[in-house]
Design goal:
Shape: globular
Oligomer: single chain
Largest sheet: 9 strands, antiparallel
Strand order of the largest sheet: 1-8-9-5-4-6-7-3-2
Order of helices and strands: EEEHEEEEHEEH
Structural class: mainly beta
Length: about 160
């Protein structure tokens, strides 16, 4: 099945929040209640898709060659963050460095998460099925590029995404 044949879903948008030492985003209900892509109290692995230049979150090992494990896992927890997913510090704080994180330095240069703003959780039909459930995590600018092809975007994500 080609990318154009997928049914794309915008699960929700979350403001990047700061609790002092860490940043997190609320995971939209659709991602964990409806589709069970993420499960509460389980570790979430962060991957980088070389083709789309975007981050992907999952509980599963992605072995395909265009997915690169960032070396970082965080927990998806219920609490003050209301179903929050901690954002790895190395993704948004360049002074954090990559030493001891498992993240390759050339990869960290490609990951550009903002310190403030919003994250979009997007997945297609195949990502929500089977044993390799996962979800894209897009910045506002990545999402804007995706929908910029359409002069009159109707809210549908049926067109193939243009991530870059």
């Amino acid at each position: 099945m080609s990318e154009a044949d997928h049914d794309w879903n915008h699960a929700g948008i979350s403001k990047i929040k700061d609790d002092g030492d860490t940043k997190y985003a609320r995971v939209p209900d659709r991602v964990f209640r409806e589709e069970e892509i993420l499960i509460l109290n389980r570790s979430v692995d962060w991957y980088f898709n070389d083709i789309s230049q975007t981050l992907i979150v999952t509980h599963n090992r992605l072995d395909e060659e265009d997915y690169e494990y960032t070396g970082v896992s965080t927990k998806f927890l219920e609490g003050n963050s209301k179903y929050g997913l901690t954002i790895p510090k190395v993704f948004y704080d360049s002074s954090q460095g990559v030493r001891g994180t498992g993240v390759k330095s050339d990869l960290i240069d490609e990951i550009e998460l903002p310190v403030t703003g919003f994250l979009h959780f997007v997945y297609h039909s195949d990502m929500a099925e089977g044993d390799k459930k996962s979800c894209y995590v897009l910045t506002d600018s990545q999402f804007d590029v995706w929908v910029s092809d359409s002069d009159a975007w109707d809210g549908s994500l049926d067109q193939t995404p243009r991530f870059f």
